Amino acid sequence: MKTSLTWLNEYLNNAINLDEQAVADLAERIERTSVEIDSSATLAGKQDGLVVAEVVQVTSHPDSDHMVIAKLNIGENDLTQVVTGAPNIEVGQLVILAKVGAHIINHESGELMVIQAANLRGETSQGMVVALQEIGFDSKIAPKAFEVGIHIFNKNDGVHPGDDALEVLGMNEPVLDTDLTPNRADMLSMAGNAYEFGAILNQSVTTPSFELVEYDTPADKQISIKIDDAKLAPKYALRVVNNVTVTDSPLWLQKHLWNAGIRPINNVVDVTNYMMLTYGQPLHAFDLDKINDSKINVRLARDGEQLTTLDKQTRDLRSGEDIVIASGDEVLMLAGVMGGQSFEIDEQTTNIAIEAAVFNPSLVRATARRHNIHSEASARFERGVNWDATFETLDHAASLIDQLTDGQIAYGQIKAADEARQDIVLSLTVIRVNEILGTSLGLQDLIAIFDRLAFNYQVADDKLIITVPARRPDITIEADLIEEVARLFGYDNLPVTLPYGPTTPGKLTVRQRQIRASRHIMETLGLNQAISYALTTPEKAQQFVENTDEKVVTLDYPMSSDRTTLRQNLLAGLLEDVVYNVNHFVHDIALYEQGRIFVANGDNELPTETEHIAGVLTGNHATSDWQEHKTARAVDFYDIKGVTESYLSQIGVENIRYVATERHDNMHPGQTADIYTGDHYLGFVGQIHPKITKPQKLAPIFAFELNLFAIMANITDHTQYSKISRFPQMSRDAALLVDETITHAEIEAVIRQSAGDKLVNITLFDVYEGNKLPEGKKSLAYTLVYQDNDETLVESAVNDDFKRVTEALVSRLNVEIR
């Protein structure tokens, strides 16, 4: 909200100091107390040397067919001559002159430039007659298009030759651009800002006053209103003004608008915008004679209806969702968002109907987003307007239009809906405030704060019974009142204390530790983490799911067409990451992602969220290296299977088995396997189908996707960590001649059963089967490693243990120690 401090001073009993340092101090104070300030500036900036000039004489340039020579009165003894190409300059006009030596903004570069005397085709020009766009006005707020020509003051604007044009145009008015939070709807109006600034500065507020003069012509004989559902518009009324003359607004009104960032249009539309800025209540004016049957209908849009809005865009309306103002089958406007082009106010308008309403904020918000129209009106209706000011704003607008258009206000306000607002009454005690804020405020301190806020209250012992004004829809509970006390008392004045009370050390849950361990394991296996959008397209959402009949979860109001649906797998996102990397010349890729997937349930039910982990490998496992005599090797199925197997083993899942499958449509039917532990399905691993990778000219991609919740439910071997011994190891080798039917597992089992607790490792380092051995025999060689965590091993202890092992092997397996 752009807030002109000059305009704001109209409502404060003691005017705000407008010098540069005072404005900077005020902005800093507001930021500490209320809302952030985006900028503090004037439209003029560093410009100077601009004056009002009266055109006394205009003659053709002797050496140009598009330039003229103008003699201007700028309040000095001599006339000033300028050469200009302005197409609309005429004798008698009051225009803006940038004198020689003036500094004005270059409308192309935005930098200041100095106006110098010039010789244009043999004629001297002592300055430059300018349009508003040439002195810093954005084309969005300038009253006329730049191509129309220079700015011309109205005779009734009260300006005179020699006046400072920057002052006359209000370009020296300091403007604070506040960055409002969604809850501070009250600060979208000058009245709301007056109460806020008044509370901060401890000043009282005088609200605008007006006189309403009605004529005998009844308004309800000229137009009627029907509201299909009270939920669409709990408050709605019209005022009719007849015999209006539509022209440009007076300068004072235009100044208020363009300093607030709104473009002046004409005296009727400008009044509606002025009232919106004053009270925060959007209004809309219809050309009454363009409404065919003189009936207004507030309803929801119907199938096939369209509306060309004021921005000249034709919009397809959504049946049953967009609130519209209609007349019969003809739509006049999108309620609370934007009017229709066919019913706008123009110079031929003579009778108008002014609308004031409170529309359903949820439907207005949805309509604004659906049609991508973020208007000043929708911004206010979405956040909430002052319920008690709706009809007062309507009357004030009718009164001002009556003055500016020489019109006649028809008798009576036509009210179609006037739902009463339920007052919010809250109690607040001194003890509660001090308990929360750590202060030592008294009852009189609280009274002083709520007097500054202009809240109505009653005092009962040490308690205030406060009635929240309708202009503050953000205050609904006791905590909101305490926040008001804190910010006006001053956050800097609150005592600084350390936290007290019992503390609980934080820790991760078992599930959180397992998820974190999953990421660590993947990274130790050489995969890099990727993070993809949870929103995707419906096709990609189901690209690697096992049941494509499941419904997808779609957003009603998506950010873009490619982010409409919640994902049901992670591989589709990883595939996009692979494509991105390959397009940027990275071909050897190892990525994993851990995150949620979403499966739809019934209507009006939240989707089921499941934690998944997925990974992809593509490119070469190792690159060529002539120094180490290595050649490049492309990754294959066994690489990705090794990753999944290592991960499951390290996370603690046992009895893993792989079952070849062809049931995954987007996976290679000959190189894909489902993964189980016992009878519990965990996920799948394999190659992504060439029908997906080849069209994108990708190398073979191998991938897996696992259900983390299923994995966590089947973890049986929780890894235990023990300290590393600082004492040396001792080893013994044993060469065994055994029957070829005896397995390594059987030998290892006997060794572990017969050895003591100092045996830490068994390694099979040689297997021999050949002609030099007896028939049916094989030779196995083992290294047994011993270590003690508490002391250095002695030779005799290791020898005794090794002897027990060899004797057990001989007696149980009939081996021969060689």
From TrEMBL:
Transmembrane segments: none annotated. SUPFAM superfamilies: Anticodon-binding domain of PheRS (SSF54991), Class II aaRS and biotin synthetases (SSF55681), Nucleic acid-binding proteins (SSF50249), PheT/TilS domain (SSF56037), Putative DNA-binding domain (SSF46955). It is found in: Cytoplasm. Residues 725-818 form the FDX-ACB domain. Pfam families: B3_4 (PF03483), B5 (PF03484), FDX-ACB (PF03147), tRNA_bind (PF01588), tRNA_synthFbeta (PF17759). It comes from the Bacteria. Mg(2+) binds at residues 474, 480, 483-484. Its cofactor is Mg(2+). Residues 421-496 form the B5 domain. It catalyses: tRNA(Phe) + L-phenylalanine + ATP = L-phenylalanyl-tRNA(Phe) + AMP + diphosphate + H(+). This is Phenylalanine--tRNA ligase beta subunit. It comes from Leuconostoc carnosum (strain JB16). The gene is pheT.
